[in-house]
Amino acid sequence: MGMTDWNVGKLLEISGSYWHACTLHAGVKLDLFSRIETGDNTAEDIAGGLGYDVRGVATLLDALAAMGLIVKAKTRYSNTETSKSLLVKGSPQYIGYMIMHHHHLVEPWSHLDQAVNTGKPVREGGALDEEERESFLMGMFNMAMGIAPRLAEEIDLDKRQRLLDLGGGPGTYAIHFCLANPHLKATVADLKTTRPFAEKTISQFDLSDRIDFTPCNYLKDDVKGSYDVAWLSHILHSEGPDEGLMIIKKAVSVLEQGGIMMIHDFILNDTSDGPLFPAIFSLNMLINTDKGRSYTEAQLKGMMIETGLVNIKRLAFEGPNESGILTGELGG
């Protein structure tokens, strides 16, 4: 949106848009969409099942209906087809975990001015609690499930034998790269707290014999093994430039000659003022991390060159929220 497009109405719409977000967050947190789907579809039914105030529940349901997320007929509520697909737990397309991840970020985002003033993160409490960890990891799974199947078909790994999914969380990309390439084996390397989520997800796709998990804090530990392809998806933005370079070096250290590295992230243009989502996401990193940020394409290419990668190029792929992929090769 250009500067000349702004007016009072649009500015106030942006300023108050968190009202809509918080309404959606509450609906997902209370799992109202699933309750409607199972037949608890009056405000009294739902409030009784939750032990909540009828007025409060009815007001929230009416607001969700006004947003077009549910349908109201007299006193009864039903899901739209979109809500059935995306907001009812148990649906393969459920995105509630990512919505809850956004919910957990509301409080720190309300202190953005403090983060800008000090240059330091404002998130309190240190490590994620169990609910926040589940929302984050399964939210990443939700989002990756919308990208990975298509991406795995587009990227040619036909001659590759062993893939490293560094910081791979639940292993979604490793799973789909292996599904698309029956000869490929993979290792998901991530924090030990991630292991239960990863092994459960890998098992669901019947790939436990081809994908293993190794505990790895890539900031502190050496990466182990030998691979001919390394996949680094959405991990560099959490770290500063020095740490980002170190992570790439560690991944390169286990690449075989002729192996390829793929970096998937929210990539800024080289003037850092767009695209919009990577620019806004860089604020999220300012709020929540010590040194994290979105990187420009030139910055990422510079790190790759410094670690000895050649033939560096950007793929035509553009993911949701304007993510992109850079590839490089070790050796000639």
UniProtKB/TrEMBL annotation:
GO biological process: one example: methylation
O-methyltransferase dimerisation domain location: 13-88
Domain O-methyltransferase C-terminal, residue spans: 122-308
Catalytic-site annotation from UniProt: H237 (proton acceptor)
Family matches, as CDD domains: AdoMet_MTases
Sorted UniProt keywords: Methyltransferase, S-adenosyl-L-methionine, Transferase
Keyword Nucleotide-binding carried by entry: no
InterPro entries xref list: COMT-like (IPR016461), COMT_C (IPR001077), COMT_dimerisation (IPR012967), SAM-dependent_MTases_sf (IPR029063), WH-like_DNA-bd_sf (IPR036388), WH_DNA-bd_sf (IPR036390)
Record GO terms (molecular function): O-methyltransferase activity; protein dimerization activity
Pfam families: Dimerisation, Methyltransf_2
Domain of life: Bacteria
Name of protein: SAM-dependent methyltransferase
Organism: Candidatus Desulfacyla euxinica
